[in-house]
Amino acid sequence: MSTTKLPSQAEDFPAWYVEVVKRAELAEHGPAKGSMIIKPHGYAIWELTQRALDDRFKATGHQNLYFPLLIPMSLLSKEADHVEGFAPQVAVVTRGGGQELEEPLAIRPSSESIIWHTYRRWIQSYRDLPLLYNQWGNVMRWEMRTRLFLRTSEFLWQEGHTAHATAAEAMEEALRMLEVYREVAEDVLGIPVFKGRKSPGERFPGAEETFTIEGLMRDAKALQCGTSHFLGQNFAKAYDVTFLDADGQLDHPWATSWGFSTRMVGATIMANGDDAGLRLPPAVAPIQVVIVPIFRTDEERASVLPVAEGLREDLAATGVRVRLDDRDQHRPGYKFAEWELKGVPVRIELGPRDVAAGHAILASRLGGEKERIPLAEIAPGMAARLASVQRELFADALAYREANTHEISSFDAFASGVEERGGFWIGAWCGDGDCEAEIGAKTKASIRFLPLEVTDPGAGCMHCGKPGAEVATWARAY
């Protein structure tokens, strides 16, 4: 671990992020351009996030399955908007086994095409519906400018793909999964998010409506944290999927898809970190508590380590993810700095005097304060302590977002404000895509979301002055 000071967030946030990812041993670049090697500490955060999502998927009636990575190009090209939207990002395999392939194969950028090709065989009657399926896997989207976790050519995610007998059922599903994403982002990852709709220009290719959760990072830039799409009957029609409804009439099923990716590891870093490194929410901290024994002599070591090990066992028995750092090659100060950088929520310091007095020192990663706690009280009280840290971390991120959310009084105020301060900016928009594009070109900001239900802004468009059709929230974004 490097002992040089991290760049500060205020002075150079991108450099801070890169150094935290590297020094906290979360990930590194792979040998292929745009690829990423996720190291154990980073992958453990993803595993815990994955578990939180998967438990909620199953609780809402979904099942996991798996589809192939390679998709015949003829399938991908059947839904015109879909293939056009992904065309610049699709990687294509043209040779295999030393020979030219009869048909090129796309490395999946998303799986709607192969899944709806398959659903044609699986759906015949309304009795076959709904199909509530989810896939955990990887996708490939050829990116020109990459950043670890946030935007890489290959990334890990889940993609839900459901089919329904009616539009109302599909819309209900899309919104249900959006709420699952909100719950995981806020209650698990500690990231406050807004729920909303994407503007038509920002929708997923082939979707009739895209719903999103949007978070604000500590550099006052927005990040799309998860999306849920109401696909209408577009994919069912493109892949000729039909079913007999309860009245014996032939119809196309209604569809949703929704995805949440390893980008959210990056979001957790950027929404919660500080100048000292990671501040991990206990719900996804691979190590929730670290015990650092302090000793100078073999005699002190012999008195401290058994007590430290007993404390580790007591904490583990209560379900706490705990590590006893008994490495001899590093001094306590080095260990303190390492675990602070890696975001461990609670550190326990235990020396010979502490053992003799029957207590230990607990240090909070969130606020840095230290407390002297009787050894017998540490394990029984740790779950409540970690829950408190989880709440406080979210409250801190929420306060930051609220301080950086602004009402638009005029276009000029918005343009200068988003340049100088960043953050979310809320104001009236006419609903015209050309106006949206002009605003984006002038400010480098985009519409991050519209309210879930159309809301009358009660004012003219902040840019063109035409009657306002929507209340739009703008920000510069990753």
Instruction: Tell me the count of domains.
Output: 3
Largest sheet: 7 strands, mixed
Number of strands: 23
Mean pLDDT over all positions: 96
Radius of gyration: 25 Å
Terminal Cα span? 28 Å
| Inertia-based shape | globular
Q: List the quaternary state of the chains.
A: single chain
Beta-strand share of residues: 25-35%
Q: Helical proportion?
A: 25-40%
Largest beta sheet: strand ordering: 3-7-8-14-11-10-9
| CATH classification class of the largest domain | Alpha Beta
Q: From the 3D coordinates, which CATH architecture of the largest domain would you assign? A: 2-Layer Sandwich
CATH topology of the largest domain: BirA Bifunctional Protein, domain 2
Uncertain residue ranges: none
CATH superfamily of the largest domain: Bira Bifunctional Protein, Domain 2
Tally of DSSP helical segments = 14
**Which structural class do the helices and strands define?**
alpha+beta
